[in-house]
Amino acid sequence: MDFLFYEFVNKPLWLWMMFLTIVIALMVFDLGVLHKDDHELGVAESLKLSAFYIFIAILFGGYIWWAWQNGTLVTSDGTNPVASYFQGYIIEKVLSIDNVFVISLIFGYFAIPRKYQYRALVWGIIGVIILRGIMIAIGAELISNYNWVTLVFAAFLAFTGIKMLVVPEGDTDVSKNPVVKLTAKYMNVTKDLHGQKFFVRQPHPTTGKLVLFATPLFVALIVINFADLIFAVDSVPAIFLITTDTFIVYTANIMAILGLRALYFALAALVHRFHYLKYALAVVLIFIGLKGFYSYFFGKFDPYLSLAITIGIIVAGIVYSLWKTRGDDGDHGTEVKAAE
Predict the structure, then answer these.
(1) Cα(85)–Cα(136) distance, rounded to whole angstroms?
(2) Tell me, what's the pLDDT at 325?
(3) C-beta separation of 268 from 333 below 8 A
(4) pLDDT digits (tens, 9 = 90+) for 262-284
(5) What is the value of pTM for the model shown?
(6) pLDDT tens-place string over residues 15-49
(7) Would you say 123 and 221 are in contact if contact means Cβ atoms under 8 Å apart?
(8) Residues of the chain with pLDDT under 70
(9) Buried b (16+ CB within 10 A) or exposed e, 177-198
(10) How many angstroms separate the CA atoms of 338 and 109, rounded?
């Protein structure tokens, strides 16, 4: 059993295995028990399931605090793992709200019924776990070898935040997505859905032989994972400016994404109520970018103060959004309904 104590990315292997076991257990429980039979996930069920995932994330944060206090968990950069974990988790969660709107457009474009949407999202977590792991590993390697990369991340985040404040959002056209074009060109794709199946065997229209076809559900899944990869370009540098400890970066990201899939159906119906939250998020990105410059030249910024400022800005954005959109029923959630 000595291999369990082998150091992998500055943490014992058993710690990584424990976290991945939790993630796998949650996915098996979600798909195999809670959603064994495909059904439409209502707003109330979405909120309850999201509360469950948030509870799990808080429990894991409690474990990080306990392990940190007894010396079991020590961050590679000496940062406070508790404040870093929760700050990264909150930022990833808020960044995901824009992702929800894009996901709803993708499901609408492929006409995916609601009863199949949740299963596709949960299966998509597998791709996210792998893709985020690769991105985080690349980021960690760059920072460990070239410390000045943190300045690049800081400048990128500050620029992104300023751009979000001053540049109007453009319309998202799913048909122009490069993944959609590539799959249409190089893959056999059925015109219609085949229940919850990602692949089916059908006669080829030219040869008549039985060949493997992807379904629109599979293409939607691929496009969603591609969209998540694009959104990770913001979130991964953001948390690396909070901490460079790979374990904290990865766990905060994955915990937030696990809960996003559950919260999707509630957010998709209410996303119009959070229109002004993007400005608060822009301020957070600018703050983290500036904090990255401060930490590089003057030393670590107080982690609890950083967490408090982040929460304060986001809460202010949520309250202002809800106040400005009070009484607005909106039609922004129709993308999901259109897919029914």
Answers:
(1) 15
(2) 80
(3) yes
(4) 777 777 666 667 777 888 888 98
(5) 0.80
(6) 999 999 998 888 887 766 665 666 666 777 778 88
(7) yes
(8) 1-5, 31-41, 98, 169-173, 261, 268-272, 328-340
(9) bebbeebeeeeeebeebeeeeb
(10) 9
Angle between helices 246-270 and 13-29 (to 10 degrees): 20
Whole-number Å distance between alpha carbons of 278 and 284: 10
* Residue in the structure block whose two tokens are 């399931």: 49
Three-class SS of residue 7?
Answer: strand
Question: 82, 24, 86: which is closest to 54 by C-alpha?
Answer: 86
The Cα–Cα gap between 86 and 252 comes to: 7
- Report the candidate in 100, 118, 58 with the shortest Cα–Cα distance to residue 262: 118
**Rounded Cα gap, residues 264 and 98, in angstroms:** 11
Q: What tens digit of pLDDT does each residue of 65-88 get?
A: 999 999 888 888 888 899 999 999
Q: Are 337 and 115 in contact (CB under 8 A)?
A: no
Look up residue 331 and give its two tokens: 């039609």
Q: Where are the alpha helices (DSSP H) in 187-302?
A: 216-240, 246-270, 277-298
Tokens standing for 139? 């980021």
Contacts of 327 (CB under 8 A, 6+ apart): none
pLDDT for residue 340? 44
Q: Look at the block and give the residue holding tokens 């309250």.
A: 319
270 exposed, middle or buried (CB, 10 Å; 0-12, 13-18, 19+)? middle
pLDDT of amino acid 2: 67
At 212, give phi and psi (nearest 5°).
-85, 125
